[in-house]
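Intended use. Records like the one below are meant for learning the mapping from a protein sequence to its folded structure. Do not use them to infer anything beyond what is encoded.
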Amino acid sequence: MTLRSSSSYSSRAWLWNGTRRAGLGAALALGLGLGCSATPAEQVQMMPPDLGDTSFTGCRAGSGSVMSSASCTRQGTDYQPGKTVNPWPACVSDGNTYVPVNANISTVARITAFETIANLLWECDKVPTPADFAEAKVQLSIANGLQSRLDRREDEHYPVFVNGMGQTLCTDPVQSINQPDRCVGPVRMVPALNAAVMAGASGQEPRVQAARVEGILIWFLYTSVYKEAVTCGRDKLDDCDSSWAYFTGGEARSSAGKGFMRYAKVADAAAADRVYDASLAVRCWRDVDRMLPPGNSTLQNLAYGQLDRALDRALAATVIDRLGYMKRNSGERRAADWAFISITAAALDRAATARNTPLAQTLRKEVQKTDPNSVNIDDMISTLQQLFPCS
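Structure written out for the chain above:
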């Protein structure tokens, strides 16, 4: 199996360095629990009508800033459901529908929790209250829910970090900080998430804190789709189901989708389709090769490559779409847009560096800015489109 090697520098370091102390303190405070109190229903503010398809769930339609990838030519070895493409044999995915390995997919409940948190904190231009952040923490902390996976999430693009017995060191609070790229969940995502929830629960810049939560959770979903595909090939077959569900929320291709798929569809429906195709490729490979460890490295590498490219484009389109909103917004709304963008765009640094180092440096320079009004939005959009034009 061939995985992308990491670059010597990751722009995500700013997220870790900038939130480490606040995040760890917040984590301790959150461990004590946040109480929910009854509050009057607040008025939900709606954004003006936007460009794009308004048939999707939620209030945000596309900003009109994303160049569609619908005309992109597929790579010659990409799996296409129902079509004969060498070296893909006939398989369970050929009906263009994901067929689960296990009918009970626990990840679906996590994406439902994501949507609940979205409605609490940011959907429909909401200004969340401290009680909303407290309830969001409750949703995060559901048994076997999002928090349980954030606490142990690893980025499979980086070398394994294990002890002499092959056990992960990413769950070791002392050892994990030595490998922040691999141990991305406990080292980077969780401290930043906890800091944002605590700040929001204290009434500090509620829109901005909600956007930080949103960005971190989209980053987590993006990372998780690929992670579960890799462990499907290494540990257990039904992780393929989790990979598919972390993108779709368990929804059909034709639906609006939930979680990351909902965002990708709004930004670039073709990009969302390509991720769905790639999930079918992973399932096809594990249908014809059910061995642990896998026996068909050719299909394995093709499936992982197809999924990786599709995920990168879907996230890039999501970032470009939000940049379009940022361009028209001002004040706290613009600051909130940048809070989301700076997190999700930083998550693309590894993939950007692998594709084009000079362009990745251009993107990184913008991502590291702290003042939203100093960001060259048009330059960022152009750079992302050049880096990730297709899936």
